[in-house]
Design a protein that fits this description.
It is built from four helices and six strands, in the order E-E-E-H-H-E-E-E-H-H. The protein is of the alpha+beta class and 145 residues long.
Length: 145
């Protein structure tokens, strides 16, 4: 898989017993559906700082990019910018695949989400649920449109 931001080949990294895919150029992370929730449920801060300590930024292969940000897993599916938050907490802008619902997390966004979750509880905000419903409706429209 390659980074949707800069084309760098993503490398597997282990975070709290969860295998994620990391870009060693921009420090972005690919999380499959459900992995963000697993990490948030651990209630651990400083995840990205620990990743830097454990894995650093080795030289990685870069591939050419084409057009809009594409899902590293589905390849042709577009990544959509969404606001992700927990009740009463600051909204963090992340990118989600329209097809597999995986998430692209830019540097600093994972820690922002985990910190917000720890300070405000673990219930997803209604805006996130509405965003998921909107994405589902759009995907159905594409199937029949």
């Amino acid at each position: 898989m390659q980074c949707p931001r800069d084309g760098t080949v993503l490398e597997n990294v282990v975070v709290l017993r969860t295998i994620l895919d990391k870009c060693h150029t921009c420090d972005g992370l690919w999380l499959d559906a459900g992995e963000l929730e697993r990490i948030c449920d651990k209630h651990v801060t400083g995840v990205e700082e620990q990743l830097e300590k454990d894995f650093g930024n080795p030289v990685a292969e870069r591939r050419p990019m084409k057009g809009f940000m594409r899902c590293p897993k589905c390849e042709n599916a577009r990544l959509q910018r969404i606001g992700y938050s927990y009740s009463g907490s600051k909204v963090v802008e992340i990118d989600r695949c329209e097809s597999c619902l995986g998430l692209w997390i830019d540097k600093g966004e994972l820690d922002a989400i985990v910190n917000a979750q720890m300070t405000k509880g673990s219930k997803p905000d209604e805006d996130e649920a509405a965003s998921r419903l909107t994405m589902f409706i759009r995907s159905i429209g594409r199937l029949f449109g």
